[in-house]
Design a protein that fits this description.
The complex is a heterodimer of chains A (about 210) and B (about 475). With about 210 residues, chain A is an alpha/beta fold. Chain A contains eight helices and seven strands; from the N terminus they run βααβαβαβαβββααα. Helix content of chain B is about 30%, strand content about 15%. Chain B is globular and about 55 Å long. Classes of the chains: A alpha/beta (about 210), B alpha/beta (about 475). Bound molecules: iron/sulfur cluster (SF4). The site of iron/sulfur cluster has 13 residues of chain B, from loops.
């Protein structure tokens, strides 16, 4: 997984509460055999005029111009600013897969749904919880200024505004370690690969037929 | 050294490391792959540029989406595009990563849980995983077998390990001798009826006692297959001479020197005298009758000579409500004798009951008899190409066809209706599969879980009957 240490990126505002996983990626896209390629269908129902199907050519579908991610000023955003209880609904990993595939590395919200929150870390997305009032302030800033960027510094655990103002955030030490080092569950297990190899050598001695 | 259970031994023998909180890395000897739960795992490997840790421990075969009718068109003949893409993707991934696949058209293709033991690809003392909850099946050989999720499939591919916490030990002892006409399927249904679908939660279940000692390996596979329906991810039977005899000479089984060493090691794969079990359940095998499920959960079973339960007689309101909902879905009236429930469809197949002994047993009932006119479709679906071949060599296919069954190609088929084999809404089906959940065999379909013998007898009668009257 990619390391996230410090990044400066455009911010897109998702100004509604309780955005659920079905809204993030509608269920007709769950039959896919991939975990990439969900980006064009992120927020599909809000983003397009028609109903998308897994085999639709998304580049030709009519867009809902007013939807925030369709506005020219938010193209290329990597930070999503959201409202409370973001990611509620199902436990499937398709929602973070879609956000990541679209290009979001960070989601900032006053609160997240539990399972979604955990699934974000598994897929290299940083979900950051900030006070409601601070999130409110950020929404005002984003709306007020075209090209509004934030810097997220995981090392010092601070968000830095364009005016230099710093907003500290909390993050679980273990999760932070994983993101800083680009470690997922597999990466963590592979950090013990010497143990696995040592076990394997012993196992081969004891049960050679399993290595024939 | 203190006495250990079989599960303790298998766990200890595969422990790579353990954290203070009990989270452990367990080494995996065999991973079975099928088309439904593996694509995103391979995709994950590609995205991260990771390679499988040990290619030779993986074995793939498509099963869930495979048509059971004509296979001559190969993968291209699968009509549903989603199904076809899944099967094609398994093939592409197997080729890209160098993993052995028994593809459609290969005589060895079949349901993963039938193929593994049949090939000797799952062996006593192994750890076995598959992205499928019925992986518990392989525990019948004295292997530690877990069903896992897609992210875990990727984890095992990349690291050869599974992150696990140790479960508790549970022993289900069934003493005595089974009556004639009572099968392994009846034993496991009776167990689930007794302990419930949550009875084994958090436990690895070992099936012990005289009944399992006397049981064939195929019977033990049927029992362990349904451990998950009792809430346990792991089911186990201790290794004995039958196990060793079953494994010997299979394509992936050890040979020569290795065989001798393996047999010596396998002798120890039993629970020690005095080993501690957190939970022990005892049943008298001689009292078990042929079983049939009436509701929408595998614990909703009764003896064939019993009646559809009456919610009015259930003091617990929540349970009474559950019974009523199941009755509504199943279109059954309380207190109806089970023998009066029709069987409009019959399905003999699935990873629970699609091995050669199952077809022999059903054919024994069907021989010289005809499927009742009221039966709309009777399907016989072998668990693998090799089971099918063996059955045909014994002439069993003719008995099925003459009786009025359709003799199909191997796959999961109407067990979960991911392919074209679906149970229509409102129809009752005598099914040898493992789950009678709402819509499992097709939207609105009404499943009754039974043994192959009972399914065959129901096909002849057109309703559920006591198979002992047909033997
Ligand atoms: S036969 Fe049924 S239970 Fe078994 S693996 Fe196939 S779908 Fe699952």
């Amino acid at each position: 997984m990619d390391k996230i240490v410090k990044m400066t990126a455009l911010v897109a505002p998702m100004d509604r509460a309780n955005v659920d996983t079905d809204a993030i990626i509608p269920k007709q896209f769950l039959k896919s055999i991939k975990r990439t390629g969900f980006g064009p269908n992120l927020f599909d129902e809000w983003r397009y005029e028609d109903v998308g199907q897994p085999d639709s050519d998304n580049s030709h579908r009519p867009l809902r111009k007013e939807f925030v991610l369709n506005q020219p000023r938010y193209q290329g955003a990597k930070i999503l600013l959201a409202r409370e209880n973001f990611g509620c609904g199902s436990s499937r990993e398709h929602a973070p897969w879609a956000l990541k595939d679209y290009g979001f590395d960070v989601v900032i919200a006053p609160s997240f749904a539990d399972i979604f929150f955990n699934n974000c870390f598994k897929n290299g997305i940083m979900p950051l919880v900030l006070d409601e009032s601070i999130v409110d302030g950020l929404f005002q800033d984003v709306f007020a200024q075209v090209g509004y960027e934030l810097t997220v510094d995981l090392e010092s655990q601070k968000i830095i505004k364009p005016n230099g103002e710093k907003i500290p955030f909390e993050i679980d030490a273990f999760r932070r370690h994983c993101l800083l080092n680009g470690l997922d569950d597999i990466g963590l297990t592979l950090a013990h690969q010497d143990d696995i190899k040592a076990y394997e050598a012993k196992h081969k001695q004891e049960a050679p037929w399993l290595f024939a | 050294m203190s006495a250990k259970t079989l599960y303790d031994k298998l766990w200890d023998a595969h422990l790579v490391r353990e954290e203070e909180d009990g989270t452990a890395l367990i080494y995996i000897d065999r991973q079975l792959l099928h088309e439904v739960t593996s694509p995103q795992a391979f995709e994950g490997l590609r995205m991260t540029g990771r390679k499988p840790w040990r290619i030779d421990t993986n074995l793939a075969t498509p099963d869930h989406n495979v048509p059971t009718t004509d296979l001559t068109g190969g993968v291209a003949s699968i009509k549903d595009p989603v199904s076809r893409i899944q099967v094609e993707t398994l093939g592409m991934n197997a080729r890209e990563f160098g993993i052995t696949e028994f593809a459609m058209g290969d005589i060895r293709q079949g349901i993963v849980h039938v193929v593994g033991p049949e090939e000797g690809a799952t062996l006593p003392g192994m750890t076995v995983v598959c992205g499928d909850s019925h992986t518990a099946t392989h525990g019948a050989l004295g292997a530690l077998a877990h069903g896992i999720g897609t992210s875990e499939v990727e984890h095992v591919l990349a690291t050869q390990c599974l992150i696990q916490k140790k479960m508790k030990n549970m022993l289900i002892r069934v003493n005595g001798q089974l009556q004639k006409g009572v099968t392994p399927k009846d034993v496991v249904l009776a167990i689930i009826g007794k302990i419930g679908t949550a009875g084994g939660n958090g436990h690895a279940i070992e099936f012990g006692g005289q009944v399992f000692r006397d049981m064939s390996i195929e019977g033990r596979l049927t029992v362990c297959n349904m451990a998950i329906e009792a809430g346990a991810r792991v089911g186990l039977v201790a290794v004995d001479e039958r196990t060793v005899e079953y494994v010997q000479g299979r394509p992936y089984s050890p040979k020569g020197d290795d065989w001798d060493k393996a047999v010596v090691a396998w002798v120890d794969l039993t629970s020690d005298e005095g080993a501690h079990f957190d939970k022990v359940i005892e049943l008298d095998g001689s009292l078990i009758e042929p079983q049939v499920s009436w509701g929408t959960s595998p614990e909703m079973v009764v003896d064939i000579n019993g009646f559809v339960p009456d919610p009015a007689k259930e003091p617990d309101v929540v349970k009474a409500d559950g019974i009523q909902r199941a009755l509504d879905y199943m279109g059954l009236k309380a207190n109806t004798p089970m023998k009066e429930v029709p069987a409009e469809y019959v399905f003999i197949g699935s990873c629970t009951n699609s091995r050669i002994e199952d077809f022999r047993a059903a054919a024994h009932v069907l021989k010289g008899r005809k499927v009742a006119d009221s039966v709309e479709l009777a399907l016989a679906v072998p668990g693998s190409g090799l089971v099918k071949q063996q059955a045909e060599a014994e002439g069993l296919d003719k008995i099925f066809i003459e009786a009025g069954f359709e003799w199909r190609n191997p796959g999961c088929s109407m067990c979960l209706a991911m392919n074209a084999d679906k149970l229509p809404a409102g129809k009752h089906c005598a099914s040898t599969s493992n789950r009678n959940f709402e819509g499992r065999q097709g939207a609105g379909g009404r499943t009754h879980l039974v043994s192959p013998e009972m399914a065959a007898a129901a096909a002849v009668a057109g309703h559920f009957v006591d198979v002992r009257d047909y033997l």
